[in-house]
Amino acid sequence: MRKLILIIDDEEVIATTLEFIFNRKSGDEFLAVRATNLAKAFVITSAITPDLVLLDVCMPGARGLDAAIEFRDELGLKVLLITGWPGVTQLLLDLEAQGIPPFPVLPKPSQPEEMLKKIRELLGTEPLAASAGAEQQ
Known about the structure:
The chain contains 6 helices and 5 strands, in the order βαβαβαβαβαα. By secondary structure, the chain is α/β, with parallel strands linked by helices.
């Protein structure tokens, strides 16, 4: 069964590229949808439940990691942060100091294979080709 990934990035080209990578490069393993703002993302999550939220750390209208915390702690969704912002490490350390569990982070830019590997790790899945190959042996 395909895993649903919600991509949230305010940069349309990045959101579209990530959507393409997950929909085309993973075979039938993932189905990705994108939102370019948090309001749209919350509407999407009220209609469907994604297996993973891939969230850009720096979003307009967001305060720190409030959206990530809401997706994870209030809605019960798995969240993977994606960012090119070097200050994210300190932000995550500050959260930990407050007793808030950290989030996994994927740096921008990342190679498609790295992204797919990280998402598989978080979802506890294996690539479809590897699964099929294991069954044939």
